[in-house]
Amino acid sequence: MTTTTPATRRARRWRAVLWGALGILALAALWELYKLVGPADGWLVGAQEGVTGSGIRLLPRTSDQAMPHTWDMLARAVEPVTRASGARPLGVVVLLAALVSLGVAALGWLVGVVVGFALALLMLGFRIAERAVLPFVILSQTVPLIALAPLIRNWGSRLSFGDFSWQSWMSVVIIASYLAFFPVAVGALRGLQSPDAAHLDLMRSYAAGWWTTLFRLRLPASVPFLIPALRLAAANAVVGTVVAEISVGFSGGIGRLILETAVAASSDPAKPWAPILGAVLLGLVAAGFVALLAAFLTPFRRQETVA
Amino acid sequence: MSSPAPQPTTGPTPAAAPTTTPADAAEAVVVRGVERIFVGAKGATVTALTGIDLTVHDGEFVSLIGPSGCGKSTLLRLIADLDEPTEGDIRVFGRTARQARVDQAYGIAFQQAGLLPWRSVAANIELPLQLHGVSSADRKARVAELVELVGLTDFARHYPDQLSGGMQQRVAIARSLAERPRLLLMDEPFGALDEMTRERMQTELLRIRAETGAAVVFVTHSIPEAVYLSDRVVVMSPRPGRITDEIDVRLGEAAERGEDLREDAAFFAGVTAVREALHGPQAAAAAGAARGVDVR
Q1: Residue ranges per domain, chain A?
Q2: How far is CA A206 from each of CA A93, A168, B58, B94, B286, rounded to the nearest angstrom?
Q3: Considering only CB atoms, which chain B residues are within 8 Å of A220?
Q4: Structural domains of chain B ordered from first start
Q5: Cα separation of B132 and B203, whole Å?
Q6: Is the distance from CB of B8 to CB of B22 less than 8 angstroms?
Q7: Dihedral of the CA atoms A270, A274, A276, A279 (nearest 10)?
Q8: Mean pLDDT computed over A145-166
Q9: Which residue in B110, B118, B158, B173 has the most chain A C-beta atoms within 10 A of its own C-beta, making it the best mutation to test that interface?
Q10: How do residues B86-130 score in pLDDT, each as one tens digit?
Q11: Helix H or strand E encompassing B63
């Protein structure tokens, strides 16, 4: 608990890193193990003797086509993307694309957090707003992303004033933020409403106004609710970015790369796995970023341990 | 509302008139003809308090005692302007309750210490001063005084989750004293503490009160606590909440009251008097000295 020394804390951190690495190795081992034991064509269940095409085939197949060796994937990442001369290694291309997507996702996350927080404040300040807005906030998340993407691109393309013209990455940002704002709005509202009556009475007895109460009491009290919301928002922003890149047709990001490399799957089976792993890495970086943010807010998380 | 300045009037003041006599301004709390009716969801009304008249003199320690639902906490909240009376008038040092709250004329402590978990002991005590724009140096000096007053100098940098319930309550009391109020409002501040801690805290409260000279309105449901601490015990009864009796139990000057007072004959006489006022003389006799609703 609170009695940890820096030494034990450091040891614990290393142990966490070790377990993480072990987990990745275990996953790779499981992959290879299944590839070794599993039938190359998957399992055929309920097939009748002598009748071709009967029965149900259970995936996955373990052929090199469907499940390339883990080391093949790694080796492929180092090789150039295409046979064209001067082509960069696949891994580098994936990392660059992931970086582009990270930037877009971060922007989407930021917009989502700001909008979500603004909505939470609005709902906190006006009870009517809570009743009017909250159902729509929830409803908004039931609209399928695929339906939304062309709409946003279409609206955006009509926007242009002066030197400004709508870029396709802006559509991606909007869609990512559309997914990101929801957990923030709901989480922040719960957090801002979390102080108990005694604390609110106390602030009233100090003749503290709405804003003072917000900054001194409600905001700090909302942090334990806010951090999981921010983490969810980060994950949503990444998913939103990857999907939106594909449906909006924004090239340069990891989503587009997944689509492009998937085409090559039959001739180059290890290739599409690189951008998929890149997308996973993107999610991890986003989660790590929020963890870093949470570390700065540690003092406000004390109440999580108070009974 | 009306101006906070005392308005001299002649003759007896009508109960509901929002005027203040010069005599009132010298009193810590004057409650006149107060009624509080809560309106429920379907228009059902609950009369929490009715016909309340109460005066707390400057520097006086008054306990409000009664069974659950008698409105003693509601009365305290009305004095603190955390709630407004349906009818009647409340004056705190001659000002309206609202003005008194805005002027920080009182300090308040609740049953839950209500400390902010992300603030250290010192920062919690500092909160009211910080909210009212006291300079950093003055705050630091005042906090140092207060942590010493409640005996927590070594714990100033600790956080609430590292403190026992009794220590948390001491921080809450120190916080309520931060603005040097002439009136302390306390709503069962020791209600959640164990018996031993509770008795120690009571003695400590008497010492603190002797040092500050503030008037105290103290809500409790413990008869011995009320008798031990108070100059006057106000007995209330429920449905509807009203004052049924007032008993003077001044057991010597606050500073001179020690632990041995708890075994003094005068103390037991006070306990019996309050119990009789609460239950009627027959009930008190039947229950005996050792048993009762709540002898803590």
Answers
A1: 1-67, 82-304
A2: 59, 51, 21, 19, 46
A3: 116, 118
A4: 26-91+183-296 (3.40.50.300), 106-180 (no CATH)
A5: 31
A6: yes
A7: 180
A8: 78
A9: B118
A10: 888 888 888 888 888 888 888 898 888 888 888 888 889 998 888
A11: strand B61-65
Question: Phi, psi (5° rounding) for residue B257?
Answer: -75, 125
CATH of domain A82-304: 1.10.3720.10
Please report which helix (H) or strand (E) contains residue B77, including its range.
helix B72-79
| Those residues with Cβ within 8 angstroms of residue A216's Cβ, 6 or more apart along the chain or in another chain | A203, A208, B127, B131
Q: Smallest Cβ distance to A199: which of B80, B106, B114?
A: B114
From A209, which residue of chain B is nearest by alpha-carbon distance? B131
How far apart (Å, rounded) are the C-alpha atoms in residues B86 and B82?
Answer: 13
Q: Would you call A63 helix, strand, or coil by DSSP?
A: coil
- Residue A3: what pLDDT? 55
CB contact under 8 A, A216 and B159: no
User: Is the four-CA dihedral A79, A81, A83, A86 of positive or negative sign?
Assistant: negative
Nearest Cβ partner for B159 among A202, A216, A302: A302
Using a CB-CB distance cutoff of 8 angstroms, which residues of chain B are in contact with residue A207?
101-102, 104
Mutate to test the interface with B, among A205, A211, A298, A303 (most CBs of B within 10 A): A205
Looking at chain A, the whole-number percentage of residues with pLDDT higher than 70 is: 97
Q: Give the residue on B whose Cα is nearest the Cα of A301.
A: B118
Residues 6+ apart with CB under 8 A from A134: A123, A189
B184-B188-B192 Cα angle (round to 5): 135
Helix (H) / strand (E) element for B64: namely strand B61-65
Query: B34, B88 in Cβ contact below 8 A?
Result: yes
What is the complex's ipTM, to 2 decimals?
0.76
Tens-digit pLDDT profile for residues B140-163: 888 888 888 878 888 888 888 888
The more confidently predicted of residues B10 and A235 is A235
pLDDT at A303: 65
